[in-house]
Design a protein that fits this description.
The protein is of the alpha/beta class and about 200 residues long. The protein has a single domain, classed as Aldolase class I (TIM Barrel), CATH 3.20.20.70. Helix content is about 35%, strand content about 20%. This is Thiamine phosphate synthase.
């Protein structure tokens, strides 16, 4: 099972240094999501990360920066996905991902992406009044059904309310991995929090 980390929407102290430490320690994928930031600010953030780790960084909604910095991939927001009629121009090896909030979306659009986030799996740790949208039983059944179909397509990553106590349920449901946010960035030591999660993921 894989562990992905999503950035907090607003900057935190020493964020790029913390992310650099996490990537150096083996974090599989870091998603840079700063919805209120201008492209220049995101480019400055990327320039502060160690170049050797940029192939494991994914940016939300900035295809030109994905190509310029030779990042790991591009993540499409719901709005970008709706406006996108063809796959964005990416370099060989760069991934395309998106987020879904309904199983029907996953069934219909999954083949267009290399991996997808499905959320919220549990009550959100970082958003108020954002409760779980699924039961583990329903997810287990749905993911098993998708795996049984020809052309299953992307890996499905669980997102929403995931902490170290819920990783076992994520694994048992059949997800390829988990994407985390609040359980790391609300911790007093985000690097240690990622380390604990990685030790459970294996």
């Amino acid at each position: 099972m894989k562990l992905f980390l999503i950035s907090p929407p607003a900057a935190v102290a020493d964020e790029t240094e913390l992310v650099g430490e996490m990537l150096a320690a083996g974090l599989a994928r870091f998603h840079l999501r700063k919805p209120a930031w201008e492209p220049a600010a995101i480019a400055d953030y990327l320039a502060r990360l160690p170049v050797r780790h940029l192939t494991r960084v994914v940016v939300h909604g900035q295809p030109s920066l994905v190509r310029e910095f030779r990042l790991g991939g591009l993540h499409l927001t719901a709005a970008a996905r709706a406006a996108c009629r063809r796959r964005p121009l990416l370099l060989p090896g760069q991934t395309l991902s998106t987020s879904f909030h309904h199983l029907a979306e996953l069934r219909e659009h999954r083949r267009h992406y290399d991996y997808v986030f499905l959320s919220p799996i549990f009550d959100s740790l970082s958003k108020l009044n954002y409760p779980a949208a699924f039961t583990i039983e329903a997810l287990t059944k749905a993911l098993a059904a998708l795996r049984g179909r020809a052309g299953y397509g992307p890996q499905v990553m669980a997102l929403g309310g995931i902490d170290e106590h819920r990783l076992a349920a994520v694994r048992q449901a059949g997800f390829a991995g988990a994407a985390v946010l609040g359980s790391v960035w609300q911790s007093a030591d985000p690097v240690a929090a990622v380390g604990r999660l990685q030790s459970i993921v294996g």
